[in-house]
Each structure stands twice: as C-alpha cells, then as structure tokens.
Amino acid sequence: MTSKAVAVGVLAAIDEQRLVQDVIDMVNINSPTGSELAMGDYIDKRYSEMGLQVIRQEVEPGRPNVFGILRGTGDGPMLQFDGHLDVSFTGTESFMRGGASAFGARIGEADGEKWIFGAGSYNMKAAHATYIAAISAIVKCGVKLRGDIMLSATCGEIEASQVDEYQGAFYRGNGTGAAHAASHGIVPDFAILGEPTCFKLMLGHFGSLWSKITLTGGTVIHTAYTRGLPNKIEQLPVVIERLKVFKDEFEKKTSYKGYNGLVNISAIQGGRSWKGSRSPESVTIYIDARYPPTWTPLKVKAEIDAVVWELNSKYPELKLEHQPYNSNTGTEISEDDYVSQALMRSHQSVFKKPVETSYELWYSNAPPLNAMGTKAINYGSAGARKIKGLTLSDRDREYVHIGDLVDCAKVYALAALDICSKTRREVRPDLF
User: pTM for the whole thing?
Assistant: First the structure.
C-alpha cells in the first residue's frame, strides 16, 4: 500500500511550470496525421530525461510509436497512459472556414483564468504533458512501486481513412499506431487515455463503420448526346431520401445505456468537374454509422446491405453497390474494474466529489487495447471548462485550462500509486 504521506509528497512534487512548458513545446510542433516524427522525437527526449526505459517502434517511415517504462519492483500490474501524436487540426485547414485553431501556442487570460491556446492543445498534447508531470513527480520522490508504469505516444489516431484516390500516410489514422502497438507486444493490464472527456470517466464508446454506396451503370458521353439519357447524379434523391429514413431507424435500433447510434451522410462524389462536357458513369455517397459496443461491424454492414437490396429491388436502374472501407469496433469496461475504481477514488480525492461516467460516439485508442485483454478507459481534463463566447469556428477553438491540467496530473498520479502498489492478482483476478 502507498502511504498517505507518500501520496502527499508526490502531489506536491508536480511541477506546474514544467507542465505548462511541455504543453507549449508540443503545441509548437506541427504533427498532422502522417507527419508525427518531430513530435515523436520530442516525446522520446522527454521520456529519456525522466529516466524511463524507451522503446520505439517504426510503424512506417517517419511515423513512430514511442513508449517510456518505469519498471516496478515486483509482481504488480502494468498501467499505461496512452495518447496520440497526431492532431485533429493544425491551423492550416482550408476546409475549416479558413482554418480552425491558430497554429503556435500562447498563454492567455479569459474569464479571469489562465489558458493555453493552440492547435493540438485540446486533442491531445496537453494530456501527454499531464502524464509526464504525474510520473515525473513519482520518479522525483523516489517511490518504488510493484507494477510498471508505461507512457505511450502513438501515431495515426485521428479519424481518417484511405479510400478511392485518397491514399497515403496522411489518410492512415483511426488507430493505426495503437493497432500496431497492440499486435507488437504492448499489452498492459490497464490503460488510461487522457482524451478530452471533461473530467468524466468514459467507460466506453461506440464503434464506427464507414461505407460507400455507389450508383453504377452510367454512360460517359458528350453533353451534346445526353438528352433523354438517365443520369446517375439525377438518380441520387431517391437514395438520399431512403438513407434519411434509415438514419432514424438506425438510431432507434442502436439505443444503449441511454445513448443512441448515429448515421452521417458525410460526402458525395461523382462525375468530373474538370470535364463538364461528359455525363457521369457513377456517383458515390459516403456514410458513417456509429453503433454500440454490443454490435459488430458485420451487423452494421448487414443493416446497410438490407437498405441497398431494397432500393435495387424497387429501382433496378440504380444499380447500387455497397462497400465498407473503414471500421472500428465499439468498446467498454465496467465501473467495477479496478482501473475505474482507482480513478473514481483519485478524482474524489482531488475534487472532493464523485466523478460522472459517460459514453461517447467518437473514436479513441481503447478498442485495440481492450481487444488484447487490457482494461482501457478514457479520462482527461480538456473541455471541463469552456471560454464564454468561443465557438467551434473560432481560431481559438482549441485551448486548455492550466489549473485543470495540474488537477488532472494529480488524479493520474494518485491512480498510478493506487494501481501499481498492488499485485496483479489483486487487481486483475480474472487473469488467474
């Protein structure tokens, strides 16, 4: 057992100034999906400075996974603090109304509080800094634990996928690095992911299936000869109207623990804008279906297949084809799992009130970890406080509260002391 005096000493050793500097340094490193090398090098350096054993994996050229391990002294469990190297926005995206999030970090004041602004601060570079602050305090205090603590930084987490002409590292997200790690020896007993959960304990999240539904069988001819010819783009409305009905049906079918699945018609592609004198031979609708942890990608595919078959039977001229191109399973753990209980106790200790639990529809690295037998859970500070007047279209859409980061580091430190002071048999009896 870790004594109260040890815990008090560790919390006092959390270095707020260094934590803030780490966030600033990381935010100032541009790391879009596919270009995570510089960020990985920074993490590697910080882990080494902490005295951790560093393991590095090259997922593909220029795209590392980096792990830092503080070895325990006995038969304790391994606790992993996992985060991704890539960011949702870099501040240069033209498709985000001129660019979402200003690139480069800065400290500013708003609503009488101090914040760090900058692309990637919210998701999720600040989380890496809180991990480092928490574990650095344990190292500084010379605490010897039974279990191992692992910090991890993986590439390619942001939701993106290769499809059609969109090929290459920039499109290889959705857990690319985490899947590589889980299949190459990184199998902790527990994992805490500091995604922006607003200090809520996110026990699980829904899965996703990305699919393309293509109207085929069109004829490519010059505009001069198209009079009276069926046009694949003109046939779209009947498909879209049926998908709108499907969205409502799917949401009702996928109700789970007070949360509902969701379908997004996310893109349409067809014809050649640069060759306006030709008719389209096909047009494709892309959809994203979010489904509960109790469902499988195959079950979702079957639901969409049924809609496609219905449309083809009723309107054979559509010649629809359905092809999924990306899937991520849903995942969840129990409130009774030791990592959940440890975070509940730690949160209570820091905030003097119980933690809320939640589920989400967005993706995290939890599924590939849980598939290997890990108990992975999301808990992070970002989003707990919001600046009045800022919206998702503002240049300052990404920011983190400095006080919240310190409190989050305290929760992580207490959870690590709790979990890693125990034997594996105590905290993972299901393995014996």
Answer: 0.94
